[in-house]
From TrEMBL:
Involved in the biosynthesis of isoprenoids. Catalyzes the 1,3-allylic rearrangement of the homoallylic substrate isopentenyl (IPP) to its allylic isomer, dimethylallyl diphosphate (DMAPP). Mg(2+) binds at E157. It holds the Pfam family FMN_dh. Substrate binds at R10, K11, Q156. GO terms for molecular function: FMN binding; isopentenyl-diphosphate delta-isomerase activity; magnesium ion binding; NADPH binding; oxidoreductase activity. This is Isopentenyl-diphosphate delta-isomerase. Its main location: cytoplasm. It is an enzyme of class 5 (isomerase). The gene is fni.
């Protein structure tokens, strides 16, 4: 049985607070991106494929369950349920940070369920960027991961009551990218990435980057709520939105694959992300919310309907696949045009 350490308790608090701050009517920058409607699609649904590729891996779904849970008995149960959902729907699933199980091995079972309940699915491990090659290999082996996420979360650590103040991460990432034999995704946790950060990662050989931007789960709000003084409220709008981050990626000089996550609420947000250059899309808060309000079969049904609706949207746009989607016209509301101008981004 897992022991209830401070870190273990923190994982439960993250789930509780993410759900407390979840807002069904939340607006974000995806609302400032619009497709031009096409009245004559000249296609039928059987001609539309929504498959994508991450590195050399072909994925039938362009979206996946992004890293959230594990590390406590309660979040171990959520991992088991998410694994069942991933197995039922065939979409990939990332683990929450496995860092805790490296320090407290008896918590490893709360992660191992991800593989036990989804033996043939595409599964991603997850560790913090403070870890080196050996820890990365242990995290991969723990769940027989097909890929590994390395999270960079400086803004979260700043506000976390027990957070780190030493952020020297590029060397670790460099070592892992060159000495681990599964694909590596470096990801933010909801604060987005600038073209400069994307470029720095690409320069050390990172081939997949999840910009995970502002607009959904907000770890500054979550960590501030855990502080006695609640004195970091002034930072609640920190970071680039997911849309801004995807635009940043356009102006980075790299061929790294870009993944979108952060504030993805529905199939249209996914299709907008794909149109803006994402190869795949991660969803966390929305899936957690669904699971906490129903049972795993309800969440699996929601995911199946999203897959169908993504296909419907491509059909409506007259796009047979994600390559053709990239050619479809979009326009932006003034706030994003302003952002593009000030950041000197040309599409
Ligand atoms: C309860 C919860 C726990 C999370 N834990 C992790 C984690 O351990 N590692 C990580 O890389 N990201 C973690 N995240 C961040 C998500 O992967 C994602 O980057 C972020 O929530 C933005 O996506 P969203 O708006 O769809 O939730 C967590 C998110 C939630 C909601």
């Amino acid at each position: 049985m897992a022991k209830a350490s401070q870190q273990s308790h923190r994982k439960d608090e993250h789930v509780f607070l993410a759900e407390k701050f979840h807002d069904d009517d939340r607006r974000n920058d995806f609302d400032h991106v619009h497709f031009i409607h096409n009245s004559l699609p000249e296609l039928d649904i059987d001609q539309v494929s929504i498959g994508t590729k991450l590195g050399n891996d072909a994925l039938r779904s362009p979206f996946y369950i992004n890293g959230m849970t594990g590390g406590s008995p309660r979040t171990g149960k959520i991992n088991r349920q998410l694994a069942e959902i991933a197995a039922l729907t065939g979409i990939p699933m990332a683990s929450g940070s496995q860092t805790i199980a490296l320090a407290e091995p008896d918590l490893a079972d709360t992660f191992k369920v991800i593989r036990q309940y989804n033996p043939s699915g595409f599964v991603l491990g997850n560790i913090g960027a403070g870890h080196g090659v050996e820890d990365a290999k242990k995290a991969i082996a723990m769940i027989d991961a097909n890929a590994l996420e390395i999270h960079v979360n400086a803004a979260q650590e700043i506000v976390m009551p027990e957070g780190d103040r030493e952020y020297h991460w590029l060397d670790n990432i460099d070592q892992i990218v060159h000495h681990v034999d599964v694909p590596i995704i470096v990801k933010e946790v909801g604060f987005g990435m600038s073209r400069e950060s994307i470029q720095q990662l690409a320069e050390i050989g990172v081939k997949m980057i999840d910009v995970s931007g502002r607009g959904g789960t907000n770890f500054i709000k979550i960590e501030n709520e855990r502080r006695h003084e609640k004195d970091f409220g002034f930072m609640s709008a920190w970071g680039q939105s997911t849309v801004q981050s995807l635009l940043e990626a356009h102006s980075a000089d790299t061929d790294a694959q870009i993944i979108a996550s952060g504030g993805v609420r529905n199939p249209l947000d996914i299709v907008k992300s794909l149109r803006l250059g994402a190869s795949a899309v991660g969803v966390s808060g929305e899936i957690l919310h669904s699971l906490l309000h129903g049972d795993p079969t309800d969440t699996a049904a929601m995911i199946m309907s999203w897959l169908g609706q993504i296909q419907d949207l491509l059909l409506l746009l007259g796009a047979r696949n994600l390559d053709e989607l990239h050619t479809k016209d979009i326009y932006f509301d003034p706030e994003l045009v302003n952002y593009l101008q000030q950041r000197d981004i040309h599409l």
